[in-house]
Fold each of these.
Amino acid sequence: MKKIRERFKSVRVRLFFTLCTVIIIVILFLILINNIVLETFYLYSKTNTIKSLYEKINMYYKNPDGDINLEEELKNIAIKNNIDILIKQNDDMIVVTTDKEFLGSIGKISVSNIFNSKSNSKDVLYSRNQMIIRRLQDEKSNIKYIVLFATLDNNYKLYIRIPISSIEESVQISNNLLLFIGGIVIFISGILASFISRKFTEPILELNNIANKMAKLDFSQKYRIKDTEDEINDLGKSINTMSDKLEKTIKQLRGTNIELEKDIEEKSKIDEMRKQFISDVSHELKTPIALIQGYAEGLVENVNSDEESRKFYAEVILDETNKMDILVKQLLELMKLEYGKREFNNKKFDLQELINEVIRRCNVMIEENNINIELHSDDNLCVYADDFYIEQVITNYLTNAIKHAKEVNGKKQIVINARVNEKTNKVKVSVYNTGDNINQEDLDRIWGRFYKIDSSRNRNNGGSGIGLALVKAIMNNYRNSYGVENKDGGVEFFFEMDLCEDL
């Protein structure tokens, strides 16, 4: 069953059935048109013929020619057009008749009665002044006719009839012929469709086979270029070119990987830690330096002239300077943490107060970026941990949010939530900022220490550097969850901490 389904999905089979379906639809359409139009057209044609004969006969009587035997002429017209003609001077006196049976079946009908009875019937094909053309059926022979009842200019009554019983047989014969021809066409078209589809799909199947092998890094098969200049041939040339370039590139990459592996094996663990330390320091000092610069510029530009504000600015600068010194030492300890050699200086503290302190320290950056920040927090968020490292986690999340916040619906926004989950007895802290989502494939990679796509290390490109690696190391040590989720109109980073008894 599965193989049958797969065969019906193939281009060749679908092309065959599509062509056959089109032919069947065309034949059915022709049969439908034949049934609807043929009879109408036939009646229209016969009606025009009768009208033309009326004009001709009327002209004979209106302008008689002594050299013409009118009765013989009318009989010739009747034979030539397969019609019956009856001309009466009044309801009883017959002038000319070409068929005695016609005289017997209709000779006693008066024109006045015809005009006065059911003139709006669907059997009436034409009606004007003293002329009416309609369909009638002979009750004895059960044959249908088109009959003209008219008054000539000399007041003679003219009757003309044409048998139409053959039209239904003609339609049936025509339909049967269409079905017969359609069957032959479908059979021949099926053979042609099979041949054409095979010629059409063979190069596609060949290209598909080559592409599958390329996906398995097998570049041995190449497309056989044909003499025809079409899109498939061009595609084959492009695939051959791509195959050659990929094969060459992969060989170069393999060679480069071998060389890199040798280089890595030759480097000692101490050298790796040294380089990592330099990278960590250069990255992590950016935030405190930015804060110091912001508050220093505030002092220089005399943003707040009161003594209390100036003192606060100076205290922040001094505090951040001290923290830079501590940060360098902590980065060294982070190396130990990743190798299982670091112990945290845990103590009880209020997480809500710590979050407020981080927001206060980042307030200058928030205002400079015109960001609206909101904090929604439960009360009494007592945790037992190293407040310095937890502050680093919150600061990394917040500065990251400030850096990547973008306007959505006309405003930049950061929302911090700190909520207690009573079932797990944990507090979840989340930092949401409006802006671009992170690529799905990068959601796990951004936690790597050295992960970056380009030198900008921005979130849109997937890089997150040391900051998020530090979060990962801290949370792994506390065996609590952390992560990032794409939200509608932005991104949300989060972490969890165990609650403890009140301070």
Amino acid sequence: MTVNNAPGKIRIIGGKWRGRKLPVPALPELRPTPDRVRVTLFNWLQPVIEGAVCLDLFAGTGALGFEAISRGAARVVMIEQDQRLARGLEEQRQHLDCAVIEIVRAEALAWLNATSEVFDLVFLDPPFRKNLIAPSCEILLNRRHLHPHSRVYVESEPGVCGNAGLADNFQIHRQSQAGQVEYTLLVREEQAE
């Protein structure tokens, strides 16, 4: 997939850090969310991003989490297993002097099972072809990490989100595709207790 950014850089596209370019490790397995997808996503999120508590579960470059803070989110927790990427995220957090971003180096699903935090918005952009979307959503629901009407953004290969068995607990709010990337904004369905 072609990325709109120069190799080793991501660009914040809106908010207080608009236009700021952040260096990221040049790793072949990285797949930063393209600028045009982030523009669309954050247009979708504009009514709910201000003051939101966010989780970037497979943070990678941190593009989604940094963009969320730039646009007014109250807090972002970024989970990244790779030591090089986690170190890069921490360097960027320090460079931006942003205390409301927490970087955690951990395996995403293990961390999700261990925490009791609740989120307004979750970014799920796991490595492709690893079958991590359905288990992530299951843990988010079973461990009560979501409020009624929380949003979950899923970035995947085409067709994965629709086949992940999420229809009972989530409503597809918005969905689009750019090349080989399907991106979906889910809304947590309020469940009767």
Amino acid sequence: ARIDDEVTVKRLETSRSKYKVTLIAENPDFSPIEVDMRNSDFAIEGISVGVIRRQI
């Protein structure tokens, strides 16, 4: 997702309000990000479908 000028990879949770969403990190060390789309430039840039890891 892109919020203003920042890009992040999070799980999207919708609410009953059509203007508010919550972005939730899979890592519990990071707090959820609540977005009010009336006050922020918010866009979903794509869908993450997997992770490719290489051992070095």
Amino acid sequence: MGNIKSKIWQRTPGGSEDAEIDPVEKKKKDRKSIECEVFGFGDEAAESAAAWKDCRKNPDHVTFIPAPEFGLEHLPPDYREVPVLDFITAVSALTVRLRVDVVSHKRPKGYAFAENRGSRVPHVGSGLVRRASVGQGPCPCRTCSGTQNSSPSSSPKWFEISVGSACHVLYNSEEALATRVDFFYDHEHSRKDGQLKSAKGFQVTEKDRKSDVCFFTCITHDEGLFTRLQSLLDRFESCRKNLPKELPSESLMMVVSHPHGQPKKITVGELVKHKVIWAEPRALALTWTLLYRADTCAGSSGAPVFEISSKTRYGRNGYVYSVGTFHSGWESKGNHSVRIHSSYSWESIF
């Protein structure tokens, strides 16, 4: 879109002259504790690089390991086992970047970006592929539905990809239609070498504001992308089941995200606090809140977060405990403190 800079004009209190408000800065100020990166209307790669360079939360980003370089040496000594590394890399392979180009008018007052309803200033977050399936019937995407007849036999082959993220990143189907999902953005040169694949969002299928969870679908005609995602989902499930039987009771926290919209990074850290609000029966957790020290930045909102431990929680029996949800934000108690509110686990997601 070039270097177009939109402007908002607003009358100054008690004055007769209009004041100029930069809509990009206005949206950035509306982030509060959430961690979406906000871009302007210039070159995306340049804006992302500038945001990375100017970051104040983690100026050196030393703990953010490029996903392709993550190895056993980056894990705490007690967790340096190949199956643990395999599980983390399996999660990484399914992690995606979201670019949302509109803020819905239906975001409620007081909610994230509510002061920017109707804005077309883009924001960026992260997410995770949930499943991939062959589409049934005529393709519902805008291009096909606007040109094809109603006969299923005339519809091109299409595939549906389900993605999970934080609800504050992508709120409803209006925003889903204005969202681009980037798969396999692992290197700066991923687009040039053809590794990066993209798909347009379609519709929200599930969301929970309290848990800050949203699931939406993408439509694609790229059979190669579908086949690759199916293989990676199978690998994730296999790696999850193959986690070691003996792990420390102290939880390992891991986050895979696209900080500042950059290529995929992995961070690990310790669990600081775990709070559960129980449902009935008590064996099922309704909501949990996690505070952890795996570093995050703007752009990490919606990233997959996993707690791995041998400690039994929620009345579950077993020797390996792993649960995941999506990064929701950070608190001012410490540079590395973040929180998640979720009633979902990967056992219900996959």
